[in-house]
Amino acid sequence: MPKQTPWERIKNFEEVALGYPIETAVEEASRCLQCKKPFCNQGCPVGIDIPGFIKCIVEGDIASGVKKIKETNALPAICGRVCPQEEQCEKMCVVGKKGDPLSIGRLERFVADWEAAQGKIEVPDMAPKTGKKVAIVGAGPAGVTVANDLIILGHDVTIFEALHECGGVLMYGIPEFRLPKRIVNREVEYVRSLGVKIYTDFVVGKTRTVDQLLKEFDAIFVGSGAGLPWFMEIPGENLNGVFSANEYLTRVNLMKGFRFPEYDTPVKRPSRVAVVGGGNVAMDSARTAIRLGADEVHLVYRRSRTELPARIEEVENAEEEGVIFDLLTLPVRLIGDERGWIKEMECLRMELGEPDSSGRRKPIPVEGSNFIVPFDAAVIAIGNSPNPLIPMTTPGLEISKKGGIVTSAETGQTSRPNIWAGGDIVRGAATVISAMGDGRIAAASIHKHLMNKE
Amino acid sequence: MAYKIIERRMIVPNLHEFIVEAPAVAESVKPGNFVIVRPDEHGERIPLSVADWDRTAGTVTSIFMQVGGSTAKLARLKPGNTIPTYVGPLGKETVIQNFGAVLCLGGCYGIGSIYPIARALKEAGNKVYSVLEARSSFLLYWEDKFHKVSDKVFIITRDGTRGKKGHIGQIPEMLQQAGIVPNLTIVNGCTFQMMRMSQITKPLGWKTIVNMNPIMIDGTGMCGVCRLSVGGKMKFACVDGPDFDGHEIDWEEFLARRKSYNPEEVDPLRHSSCRSHF
Ligand SMILES: Cc1cc2nc3c(=O)[nH]c(=O)nc-3n(C[C@H](O)[C@H](O)[C@H](O)COP(=O)(O)OP(=O)(O)OC[C@H]3O[C@@H](n4cnc5c(N)ncnc54)[C@H](O)[C@@H]3O)c2cc1C
Ligand SMILES: Cc1cc2nc3c(=O)[nH]c(=O)nc-3n(C[C@H](O)[C@H](O)[C@H](O)COP(=O)(O)OP(=O)(O)OC[C@H]3O[C@@H](n4cnc5c(N)ncnc54)[C@H](O)[C@@H]3O)c2cc1C
Ligand code: SF4
Ligand code: FES
After folding, report:
1. pLDDT bucket at A81, cuts 50 / 70 / 90
2. Strands B3-12 and B15-21
3. Residue span of the structural domain in which B68 resides
4. Cα(A222) to centroid of ligand 1, in Å?
5. Same structural domain for residues B36 and B107?
């Protein structure tokens, strides 16, 4: 897929991957074998009819391709850009057995962007109004999916979102250069156009509790996502210049700090940045730091390159953009100057031992290998716990040890009647598509429940 | 969204009374909560404590001090204008029980935010002793409101133009003379005042609650910028606080973190009255 060149893109926040022109899309789609028993579908958490939509592209009937995808996935422009396809559909594709698998994600993106470029989005058939009212907590991918499904089924749907913009992580976490915010806004405006009511600046649990909402609504879906960033619990983490990835990315994405002082929220532009972690969040932070003009950005990760949990495409992008990978390295201490600002990081070298419970080889510190590197900022991107606000303010909800809401995998139902949940609030930090998959399951269960209640 | 400004008026130099129409917030707000506001579409999200409310009218009042860019924008608002973000009530409310005798100390904007705390404590049957502290008499406000909810109101001014001349260091002696031993001390004000009072009460063994004001963004526990060390543990002020035990806070770290976005600038707070608590 065509991309902005690294030396161009490190100076801007525009999208890196430019998308397929139609000729390339058709050519790529033609590689599909149209398997009788396709495996790709099974790799897709929401079970998109992949050969089906690819066939439409080959036949040049993109509009039908859109329809096919939207039968199971309401947000293809987003999933096509951010799903870890190499772990899902593309991993299963038979063409990939020898050579490159079909670029299913890029084709999905192509179809969704084609639709947007037509300027008119097809409105689905709407069921007659049922008079049932559903409240949704959080306008992330989980919440938006539930809203989309339930409004089409005729229910009255209201989303309550804590921030001043909708989209959840898609808005505040994933940077513009990977997922343009106009795409997120477009999807949100779409569900709004279907009749979903959206209240921003509304923190459920605070502005009104779940129990108060239950007096007014027949069912509630909680999609409040991950919050509460983890820190390493090593000395020096409260020094100035040490940020959680959420803070760093929120300043830049949601608050548009990269356009400070046009926008009021400041963001630091340090020259030597350490990003700790190896997932998508770490890649996004490192690449953001590069774009903010850092001289050197180091990604500090305790395992080796093969274990990096980030999408492979983003790892490659980060490498091209000049991010330095300090692999098999574990920070043990952050050292401050006399004014309380970070100036150095002490690390240990690691080596890989036997596979651990996650199946990845366990990193073991090499004794006495301590070394100190100068940094004037550190971004901690090692994970998040589920957002604590709803668990804290909703008595009787069963909560897991890790702080997530416990649900039934088949229905998304929580331990309390009339309350469903899904996405990162249940799974901890996971993926966009799994949040949407949860939303889909919960919506079906809510619908069934509401229609049986008469 | 759009929230209507009902009132924005300078009540004493540099401090503004700020009343906003926000029925959903007004409905559930409690003493010790705060709201997050954004003055315009390009604005920062800044936290402000609540100082009063009218549930029937659906309005919420704060007192803010003009210190930097965002508060300067707020200070230019007129009744009838709207702002795009006004979200709350955030944070845990101040614990209100019958403690016996409670000392409520307010300074700067904290005179405003401690008022509903004093009122609720009074309603809960406490003896409420309010202490209002300012550099000079012309910086005091809401004295009459405090008289209605306090058993006694003490005034301290740095220059002695009203009440006792001096600083908060004299509070223990002042209370002793009046024969008062508080079961609980609550302080709302600038960081220096809260820190200083915690240092004063610690050797006396007076339990002291302070209303912390770190830099914040989301106010929902998502970003971690509001973290501080309390009793050696990392806490997030927006969801675990903002009220904490003043004797447990790592003040040095807190002060450094709060200044993280103005290292080159002269810290505007420090150059107002706040250093005079020393
Ligand atoms: C930087 C970053 C990069 C990522 N990259 C990828 C990627 O490339 N691919 C991928 O698949 N996944 C990625 N992820 C993970 C993915 O974004 C999440 O798994 C997904 O967004 C979870 O969706 P959700 O709807 O459960 O929650 P969220 O997206 O977190 O949305 C939750 C929403 O609820 C709101 N909310 C919270 N509490 C309340 C409340 N009490 N009241 C009202 N509203 C509330 C929040 O403000 C938020 O808007 C990334 C995550 C991050 C942080
Ligand atoms: C829970 C809480 C309640 C608060 N209540 C009030 C109140 O009732 N009245 C009031 O006047 N102020 C209150 N504050 C402080 C107020 O939020 C800051 O004064 C305001 O954000 C400064 O913004 P600015 O752009 O005008 O100043 P800036 O130029 O951004 O900064 C000026 C000074 O304010 C500090 N500051 C900057 N941003 C923040 C921030 N987001 N949070 C805290 N401090 C910051 C800086 O360290 C600096 O010293 C409260 C803060 C918190 C966390
Ligand atoms: S597995 Fe690959 S080749 Fe087979 S249908 Fe799916 S995308 Fe096409
Ligand atoms: S303000 Fe972001 S976690 Fe508290």
Report:
1. very high
2. antiparallel
3. 3-90
4. 12
5. no
pLDDT in tens, A362-385: 889 999 999 999 999 999 999 998
Q: In this predicted model, what pLDDT tens digit does every residue of B222-238 receive, in sequence order?
A: 999 999 999 999 999 99
Mutate to test the pocket of ligand 3, among A39, A68, A90 (most ligand atoms within 8 A of CB): A39
What domains, with CATH codes, occur in chain A? 6-118 (1.10.1060.10), 133-227+385-452 (3.50.50.60), 231-382 (3.50.50.60)
Judge whether B14 lies within some domain. yes
- Tell me the pTM: 0.90
Q: What is the mean pLDDT of residues A51-80?
A: 90
Tell me what pLDDT residue B262 has: 57
Query: Would residue B95 count as lying in a domain?
Result: no
Count Cβ atoms below 10 Å from residue A6 Cβ, excluding itself: 14
For residues B209 and B74, membership in a common domain is answered with no
Give residue for tokens 């940094």. A375
Question: CA–CA separation, B178 vs B159, rounded Å?
Answer: 22
**Ligand 1 and A384: CB distance under 6 A:** no
pLDDT of residue B260: 63
The answer to whether residue B275 sits within a structural domain is no
A392 touching chain B per CB within 8 A = yes
Question: Which pLDDT score is estimated for B271?
Answer: 43
Q: Would residue B229 count as lying in a domain?
A: yes
Nearest-by-CA chain A residue for B43: A264
Same domain, B131 and B254: yes
CATH code of B221's domain = 3.40.50.80
| Residue that is written with structure tokens 């309401």 in the block | A74
pLDDT in tens, B4-40: 999 999 999 999 999 999 999 999 999 999 999 999 9
| Burial track B79-104 (b if 16+ CB lie within 10 A, e otherwise) | eeeebbbbbbbbbbbbebeebebbbb
| B224 Cβ closer than 6 Å to some ligand 4 atom | yes
pLDDT-based confidence at residue A269 (cuts at 50, 70, 90): confident
Is 70 exceeded by the pLDDT of residue A66?
Answer: yes
- Strand A384-386 and strand B233-236: the pairing is unpaired
- Domain final residue pick, B90, B125, B146: B90
Ligand 2 within 6 A of B62 CB? yes
Determine phi and psi for A203, rounding to 5 degrees: -95, 105
Burial of A214 (0-12, 13-18, 19+ CB in 10 A): middle
State whether B119 and B235 are in the same domain: yes
Residue with tokens 């609720």: B120
